[in-house]
């Protein structure tokens, strides 16, 4: 075998003279008993060990010296800091220092003390400065009057130490403030040691350290020389038996290793080949000394061996194997010129690598599907994302069909044999597949699609050309598909929660491999992930639609008719879903109007339902005609009760705390607007000239916080003013804060000639992006004033005889207003209300008649006692007055004011009152 000649030579007797080598330059050892020849060449092991020992000792000495220098300098600087700080603090806290600094001549008082202290303290300098840093006394008199640097911290009362770099010298210094009895800084004391004097002790120690290092180096060198001599003696003492065993071990390892090895000479002939090389390369038995070009190793491997170039893990074919080849030249490692080549069999590794790469690609595909599919919560878009992810790595063309119920966000029920193509990705010549939007029907039972729906799992058609069952439903369409080059199909039902949502088809065209069973597994996993995303999008669409419908039903559909304000409004939901912003316009007695804007924290169904509850509560509280701040107080109590119930529901309910509300009452008689707000942003007021203000109105905590009274502020608005009420989503966004939003809003509404509708349109266009992050409620109201000729007021003496006189005056005013048809009913109402006020109330008593869309009669007095409607018994002498009022008036009620109450009755003009005569007769029968 090739290579055995080396073993036979190792057993031969040494040449005459006892030498192991005929080459004088390689006399590494002699037989025992001979005198050793020293060799200090760096190629010998002894010289290398000696050099290594010297280097190690030098490194240790250098490290020790450097550590000593650094530690010495560190200790010196710390000692200098402590000494400087002690001296500076002692001088600054001395009893007479502060007094001297406040004297008329601080320099004369302090200079002797500074010189004396420096002489006995061991520091290089002491300076006393005023708070501005001007030297008043210094150990160098020529510096007096100059300004010190970097003492601002001490002027603020802070003591510190630092290393100062600058003029007059670099130093380690301490800076201490001097304070008088009132803790006011009256001066600064600095003391320090120059940098050049800090290391004087180190300069004395370095020569001693270097001398010790030299002695250590000498001892280490001598010891290393002795060890090296002993090592050379032992190494050169190897005998023939030891060398023989060494060669035998080398041969055994060479031929037992599971890696092929070749040694090629400089002339390109094979010098050595181990057993593994014979097996891997199929070498003939007589391959020794033959040229590598004669061994039939293949073009690539032969080129590597002949060229002599270095190579690392170059894969070359050798028969039915793939070998990883490594080549290196032998010249740098001794011996003649040549080449060493090693071989490893990587055939199975390459197959495993291919399968691993395929698995990695499929895992990457599934990972991207999880990241890219379902980002928008939009059903058609999610289906399109599935198709885009699968093309081109999974298929060449992908189609997705969904049930119409799924596209509309509804729960899929009933038949699944009719779907609508929702996504198609991948281009084919002639567009053989039905386009997006077409209705797809599965009516033939033998097609793969119907089979997949029936079985609930994927169906593979590896060769569409030979398969016949898929052509039954649409033979012409099947012909066009084959003509376009499509040859393989996987159809997978789109299922989530056990319910069929649609169908996904994967197609491959000519030039791509056919689908196999592993592709089916990947397709099923991909579709399963997409099905969850599509179902989530469907459920989100349904919930969003329900929330939008609910919120639209809870918001006012139309504004009520009233004469006090010209109103326009806008509501815009957020991009993320329905929110809790709301508004309302509520007519109140006396032609007053309440404007309401609120904001519930959060989005979704809960926010919409909570908004509806709050709006209903405000409507109910408004029917009681409460003051603005009192109404918000009742609303706050209601929110607190709701939160208490939510806490008691074991997490099933959500809290309302944090909702905001603004409630404003506008009175057109005097143009006065009362505003109370609970955590809400203040409205904008635009006067008739276009000047915009944001009035400073009292602000109370949001609803549900509790423990705080609500306050109200009043605004006097001239006719034609605009009141702009809004939620924070209009002025606050991710790209701007609320202050910038208010500035933009003020500029947008500062146009005196715009109507409320035009103002709303301008604000929507200016303030909001295309997809706002928060919902927005906007209410713009332009004020009107009731003409003074339509208001009549009488102060009534607190006596029964005044009733007839006032009734007569009211009748005259009704004649002036051409309202004779309601004169009788008005006189009756006024008589009853005024009689009750004088009999059961307290002064002052006042009557006010208002003419507008309706006729309002108001009687006020100073009592808080409210009358109530009741059915009087036949034996009662009274109790029928309010019953008569309720019969002749369309509406009536009571509201409380700061000092008393107001009882009002409203009659609709243009029709005669029609009281229930039966009830009147029954009531008057007594």
From TrEMBL:
Protein's UniProt name: Histidine kinase
Record membrane topology: Multi-pass membrane protein
Keyword set includes Glycoprotein: no
UniProt entry tagged with the keyword Coiled coil: no
Chain spans, region Disordered: 1-25
Keyword annotations of the record: ATP-binding, Cell membrane, Hydrolase, Kinase, Membrane, Nucleotide-binding, Phosphoprotein, Transferase, Transmembrane, Transmembrane helix, Two-component regulatory system
Gene3D superfamilies: 3.30.450.40, Histidine kinase-like ATPase, C-terminal domain, PAS domain, PPM-type phosphatase domain
Any GO molecular function: ATP binding
Transmembrane regions: 45-70
Domain PAS: 246-286
Location of the protein in the cell: Cell membrane
